[in-house]
Amino acid sequence: xxxxxxxxxxxxxxxxxxxxxxxxxxxxxxxxxxxxxxxxxxxxxxxxxxxxxxxxxxxxxxxxxxxxxxxxxxxxxxxxxxxxxxxxxxxxxxxxxxxxxxxxxxxxxxxxxxxxxxxxxxxxxxxxxxxxxxxxxxxxxxxxxxxxxxxxxxxxxxxxxxxxxxxxxxxxxxxxxxxxxxxxxxxxxxxxxxxxxxxxxxxxxxxxx
Length: 209
Known about the structure:
elongated, 4 strands, 4-stranded mixed β-sheet, 56% helix
């Protein structure tokens, strides 16, 4: 394995455990920079010219717009509760060789919900959510439609019972060969090295913040 590949694996990305915590810190830094620069310009030019009525005030105000958008993004991620580490460890013991994603907040125009984990194997995608308010049937149906529109025929189901989800993981590992057999896949040149399961995961993550 190359050094680049090792760094990529060690880097926490969307779909990894710990993503919300890491992303919250990253967005705080970005927001501080995006707001800090125009505010610095505003106060510096105010002190230099002795008045706020200059073109620099306009520039500073316009410059704050990206920072304001970043605040909205920060609030959205800050409202999401990180996945419980004990729950993650429990699911990991049943993960086996399955392609998995963790800590997802999936959003659609009508509804949104938190999903702790999903497992992908061939055309079978199974998720688990501890969110008591989730409309699991709606979320799974909408995600399934969009993934299929991207060319990957899948059957997506979201479970609310942890033990049932863990049993499904064990079953998917046991029958992995049959679940993946006969499925045609043309690699995407934009994502070298990605398997079909990886591409399904990537497509689902695009629906999450």
